[in-house]
Amino acid sequence: MFACAGCGAVLTVPVSRVALPVHAGQLYGHDLLGPLMEPGTYAVNPEPFGPPWRTWDEVGAAEAQARGWYAPAHLLPGGPRGAVVIAPGDVRGTVFIPGCSAGYCCGLDGRDGPNLACERCGREVATRIDDCSYWQAVWLHPPAVHRLAGADGPPAVTSWEALPAQRPVLPPIHPDGWWNPIWAAAVAAALADLLAETDGTPVTVPDGPVADVFRRSIETLLPAGTPARTLAVAGPGLPDVTADLVLVPRHPQNGELWPAPGAVPLAYDVWRHLAFHRERRPVPGAGAMPDEARRDDPPPRQPPGPFRPDWGIFVATLARRPEVRRPWLRRLHDRVRSRPYREPF
Ligand SMILES: [Zn+2]
Ligand SMILES: [Zn+2]
């Protein structure tokens, strides 16, 4: 649990630490999104979070690099590192601070810093974010809270083998027929990491589920031709593969990567689907479904267009890779950053 550093009041339910989700910094569409964190969990942001916001020019390249940014960004957060993020439903004993309701549209975006105070002593303790386009979350303000050790100690890390039974299935397409935004974030981050592992040389993607979400982006961002490096999926439960680059899972609890040469990290739930799910699409056959049944149980809707990785996550991930200082990758970064809606984004 986390408690107020001023008066000791408990501010959360008991929570267990997990890795920071890949879509933590995502802005998506103009919908109210769900909670970023699963109930009963928390994650720690190792990077500065929240205001004061400073422009790239104010910060300067040297200081930005010390903070882990190797290519220009519009605004850099200057708030404290180590912000703890939890689901809004796991917060206890806080009240909104009158007047701290900055948001763009349908809710709070937290741009001005803490907007929740400790109910008992009034100390500013957390920032609630629930505006449209943001994953809903409460970020605890590091200097205002402290962690209370659980009675049982931290829970054991689930083995790779036991993970599938514990994780929700995360299909790439929502029942409403749109691509899943978490997939857009996860693939965008992996794509940036993949580019950083290449020297701008061709990469080929074999037919199958990986090609469905990676091939178009790779063909748009990297040249075609030979020799080309190969990309495959590797990890727990899969036979050994020989490929130059391998998509490996990031453990959802401790963030560790499945070790492999040429590893490109991918969020576990997305990796699992690419590794094990075999699409079985309904095909018309003899004795076709009667019209009434088709009307009441239509086949799942298909997305209206090709898969698009998340532009913002791609640019932000690339800007935090030291490899972006190589001229070819910096040119690619700058080109993508200046044109948000160009192919493949
Ligand atoms: Zn307090
Ligand atoms: Zn809105």
Q: How many angstroms does the end-to-end distance come to?
A: 39 Å
| Distinct compounds present | zinc ion
Strand order of the largest sheet: 2-3-6-10-9-8-7
Beta-strand segment tally: 15
Estimate percent helicity: 10-25%
Q: How does the helix and strand content classify structurally?
A: alpha/beta
Strand percentage lies at 15-25%
Largest sheet: 7 strands, mixed
Based on Cα principal axes, name the global outline: globular
Mean pLDDT: 93
Radius of gyration: 22 Å
The low-confidence parts are none
What is the element string, with H for helices and E for strands?
EEEEHHEEEEEEEHHEHEEEHHHH
The helix tally amounts to 9
Our count of domains comes out at 2
Please explain how this structure is put together:
The chain has 345 residues and is an alpha/beta fold. It has two domains: 2-46 and 82-147, no CATH class; 163-279 and 303-338, no CATH class. Helices cover 23% and strands 17% of the residues. It contains nine helices and 15 strands. The protein has helices spanning 56-59, 61-66, 163-166, 181-197, 209-221, 268-276, 291-296, 311-319, 327-338; strands spanning 2-4, 16-17, 41-45, 53-55, 75-77, 83-86, 94-96, 116-118, 124-129, 137-140, 145-147, 203-204, 229-233, 245-250, 263-267. The strands form four sheets. Strands 2-3-6-10-9-8-7 form a seven-stranded mixed beta sheet, with no helix packed on it. A four-stranded parallel beta sheet has the order 12-13-14-15. Strand 9 (124-129) and strand 10 form a beta hairpin. Helix 4 (181-197) runs parallel beside helix 8 (311-319). The chain is globular and about 65 Å long. The two termini are 39 Å apart. The model has no long low-confidence stretch (mean pLDDT 93). The structure holds zinc ion (2 copies). The site of one zinc ion (ZN) has 8 residues, from loops.
